[in-house]
Design a protein that fits this description.
This protein has two domains: 121 residues, Creatinase/prolidase N-terminal domain (Creatine Amidinohydrolase, Chain A, domain 1); 217 residues, Creatine Amidinohydrolase, CATH 3.90.230. The protein is 34% helix and 23% strand. The radius of gyration is 23 Å and the shape is elongated. The strands form six sheets. The chain has a six-stranded mixed beta sheet, with helices on both faces. Strands 7-10-11 form a three-stranded antiparallel beta sheet. A three-stranded antiparallel beta sheet has the order 8-9-12, with helices on one face. The chain is of the alpha+beta class and 355 residues long.
Length: 355
């Protein structure tokens, strides 16, 4: 955590500022370790001050490192102003992409002598580059999710509803030690599988269905994320053919992925395979996203961005083909990027499983 504080403090010099106010809870967690729901971290040249309310007094003392802890009540900005915690600061940075207009107006009213500098994506590059410890936590979360998937293969069958399967997925994650789900599970059967972000419904899984499953959890602060598509009963030839195209697209991207390459080039590695197979218009989303303390972090792996992918970032690679009113196929792994290639953090099999 000390190194994280140092990396955050570097932005003081870059932005010619005297203080940084972090309000993003995931960034606060990354810098000092706090996992609660109300916090403010003030980073100064010679110290860091963490503010929260009395609900988190014991928790903050157990979690927070490299910062002085202050119980500031519910209005943390007001407490900071009343106690002159920005004394001597002429210019201060705030996370403008994490701020409401009302919060910004409150800053101006309460810290009248301070010039406020809005910064977007303030720590995204630092947060994206994962340490070995962070990757170990992501891998542990992923192993838990894979164990749930393995267990599912024994009990998913025709006659269950999508909602029943989603509920069991959530229950098993929590039973095995997950803190919470990283998002609501996607359980999409039959024609619903053609909806990339379908919500579980009362639809009953039937023999002959394609079943798309996308889920993950938070464990020890870090997220997992995995998609597998299975067949319930023997699939038709078209399902097998489309599945093989998606597998080829993902394998091509996995073999191409490395830090330093442009994000749209990695997206294109998978997209070109799908386009060449005649399904280009049915791959309707980006190839992937960063993952860590949030389920969706920077960087995006998309044709619509222009940046290079950072070293040691953990990203998803999840191509898909979605044929409206018929079926959809998606396969998703998590990888860590290195200059020489990508380390796959996902061990679940990718051959088409027939239940």
């Amino acid at each position: 955590m000390h190194d994280h504080l140092h990396l955050a403090r570097n932005h003081l010099e870059r932005l010619n500022a005297d203080a940084i106010l972090l309000t993003s809870l995931s960034d606060i967690q990354w810098v000092c370790g706090f996992t609660g729901s109300n916090g403010l971290l003030i980073i100064l040249p010679d110290e860091a001050i963490f503010l929260t309310d009395g609900r988190y007094e014991i928790q903050s003392r157990n979690e927070v490192r490299s910062a002085r802890i202050v119980m500031g009540g519910y209005d943390l900005f007001a407490y900071a102003a009343e106690n002159d915690l920005l004394s001597g600061c002429r210019r201060a940075v705030f996370q403008s992409d994490e701020f409401t207009v009302a919060s910004f107006e409150s800053l101006g009213n309460q810290f009248g002598e301070v010039e406020w500098i809005g910064a977007t994506e303030l720590l995204v590059k630092e947060v994206a580059s994962k340490s070995n410890e962070e990757v170990d936590r992501i891998r542990a979360a992923q192993r838990l999710t894979e164990s749930v998937f393995d267990a599912m293969l024994d009990w998913v069958r025709p006659g269950l509803s999508e909602k029943e399967i989603a509920a069991e997925i959530t229950y098993l994650h929590l039973k095995l030690g997950a803190r919470k789900m990283s998002f609501e599970p996607v359980v999409a059967s039959g024609t619903n599988s053609a909806l990339p972000h379908a919500e579980p419904t009362d639809r009953i899984v039937q023999k002959g269905d394609v079943l798309l499953l996308d889920f993950g959890c938070f464990l020890d602060g870090y997220a997992s994320d995995m998609t597998r598509t299975v067949a319930v009963g023997e699939p038709c030839t078209e399902v097998r053919d489309v599945y093989e195209v998606v597998v080829e697209a993902q394998q091509t991207a996995l073999a191409s992925a490395r830090s330093g390459m442009l994000a749209p080039d990695l997206d294109a590695a998978a997209r070109t395979v799908i386009e060449d197979a005649g399904f280009g218009s049915y791959f309707s989303h980006s190839l992937g996203h960063g993952i860590g303390l949030r389920i969706h972090e920077w960087p995006r792996v998309s044709y619509s961005v222009e940046y290079a992918l950072p070293d040691r970032a953990v990203i998803t690679i999840e191509p898909g083909i979605y044929l409206p009113d018929r079926f959809g196929i998606r396969i998703e792994d998590m990888v860590q990027l290195h200059p020489e290639g990508a380390e796959n953090l996902t061990a679940a099999p990718k051959e088409l499983i027939v239940l």
